[in-house]
Design brief:
heterodimer, A: about 400 residues, mainly alpha, MetI-like fold, B: D-Maltodextrin-Binding Protein, domain 2, D-Maltodextrin-Binding Protein, domain 2, 2 domains, 10-stranded mixed β-sheet
Chain lengths: ~400, ~375
Amino acid sequence: MAALTPISRKPMTFVLPIVAIVGAIAGMFVGTSFGSTTLGFFMGAIALAGLACVYVNLFDNERMVRWFHIVGSIVLGYLAAGNIGILLAGLFGWFSIWFIYWIYEGRYRAKLLPYLTPGQVLWHYTFYVICGSIFVFLITPILVVMPLSFNAQDFFTFTDKMLRLDPEGYSLKHYQDFLGLREDSNGEWLRSFWNSLKIAPIATVISVSLGTLAAIGLSQSHVPAKRAIMAILISPMIVPLIISATGMYFFYSDLGGFMENSLGMNKDFVGYVKVILAHAVLGIPFVIITVTATLVGFDRSLTRAAANMGAGPVTTFFRVQMPLILPGVISGGLFAFITSFDEVVVVMFIGSASQKTLPWQMFLGLREQISPTILAVATILVALSIMLLATLEILRRRSERLRGMSPG
Amino acid sequence: MKFTKTLLATTALTVAAGAAMADDMTIVSWGGAYSKSQLKAYHEPYSAKTGVNIINDDSSAEAVAKLRAMNEAGNVTWDVVDVVAADAMRLCDEGLALEIDPDTQLAAAPDGTSASEDFGDLLVSSCFIPQIVYSTTFGYRTDLVGDTPPTDVCAVFDLEAYPGKRSLEKRPINNMEWALLCDGVAKADVYDVLATEEGQNQALAKLDTIRDSVIWWNAGADTPQLLADGEVIMGSTYNGRLFSVIEEQKQPVAMLWDAQVFDLDGWIIPAGLSPERQARALDYIMFATDTQRLADQAKYISYGPARKSSAPLVGKHESLGIDMAPHMPTDPNNAKNTFLYNYEFWADYRDDIDAKFQAWLAK
């Protein structure tokens, strides 16, 4: 966006207090880590305001001052906290000098509409800060796990070596443990990962087939008691999981007993069947909801046109209806997959040790030994989830484009 | 049509292949390093000897609840279960565990001493086959306790000499005993005093003095993590966890063995197994609790073998190569002042004191 408003330099009485506030907030963090919050607060305010005063009054060359400030911050950071200080102080130095000139030269005004009052300008940036804080609040717990998963120790602790960015403080041993490459790893992690990868896709296929059929059936106008049926089908999502799990436990142990004793099937095989069926039930509501939502935009005259041209109901479904509701089916399937992949309560009730899934193993690891292998797995799972969500988003955009809802 | 045929054929094959496979034996334990020590000392040699495939299920923490549910559903899927003695007593009382005759169903010591004599008074229940003696004791950060490291348990209650946080288990058991001991009650009288209303109040009043400096733990892994973080200067946990923190993770932590509380962990066989499975479980127990096997487990974890005849056979740690005997809670140097978990007292008073303790915590 081009500049909308001519800008001018601001008076010191305006610049210094604002710069002092930013300095105070930064000083508070530094002060807390060195033991005195209050001292840090005042020192930060005075230091940054003082520097700003010197920079803008005594020097004309902004570029030179910027470099001087950033290099100075880095040196101070290194002296105070070592390697990690270089990084943090460098970032803050870069930000603070940009901020000083941004305020002083009035650049913050340049891209806003000329008629805004100071109050509106303030709100504009406050709004940005609030949004940014919410983002940080949501994302920090996930991010903090990632460096910890490279910890060289067996605890959830940022060691001194890690804080100094010493390579010795980091290792891939928890990833090796997950992959079963270490001498003392017992392969349980990988086995439970494979179990999850076996159970989740099959459960997803079952949920998607049944859920899609149910949604299509329920969208027909002649089905009686539609709402009641819908409510029952969605109930696994609404009833607390622990209650479903208890009920399922007794139901499936009878079913399993029948399959093992009367049909003579293998215990392991029956165990997988039980868990897969239970997870399929949990996944169906997600498929029904997403498919029902796509069916709202589906033009019924298309099926009548197909019938008119001699296509049977099955051909019509696969050649006409399915391609159009596919995005809904796939996103429902992704939800069903993640439900099964994340599920720990039901599988603990129904499964036996041979069906141990990844979330179950993580739960045990957390309760028994707080092993950072959990963090390594969490990091891998976060990466997987990001890929799944990206797929979902790409599919959504594709469907919008196909339906002509957005340009391009 | 072709698709349907293939599907049918595959299903038939899977089922047939499944049915042909021998049943595995499911052994339930606590997970982590403890399960690993059992895997090395018991499961692997047993599988090598008999060809039985053993599956480890880490569900001991909810063993009582799950066994009840399995019994109700009439489908017990576990073959052998590792539980603490108190749980074994409950299961035995409810008829969920099989009663064992030690002299005919357990191996005698190599010198011919009968199993009942070898285990001695550790056979606390007729369903319970003791395996290890573990203790709940304190560890402290050597770098955070100043120049005079603590030597007795009352250091936990001494905020002047040892300022800082300490971690205690979030239950009355052990904490009440320690509190009374440090409030001037003689060791022999602790349970008599604790049985009275005034005694319970006295213990809680003593705990009140350190209340603001306590971090309460629920899982055995909490105190090691807190000690490694330096969040607490001392904390109670199981001695095997502290061994791992000190010797394997090389943290600046030392043991305070004073007033450690012994407890037992061992096997039970669930009631209601089919005769073949029961015979197999008994065969496993006979093998896994003999003198040599119990001594072998101490190579992997610092818990004391429950048989007297195993003690002289305890050797070096498998990977660290250090002598394990001095790290056993039962070693004479560590066992100068000990308690044995008082099963009868806590069976009678647990609910009552638990309620009081929780009310005190919430205050």
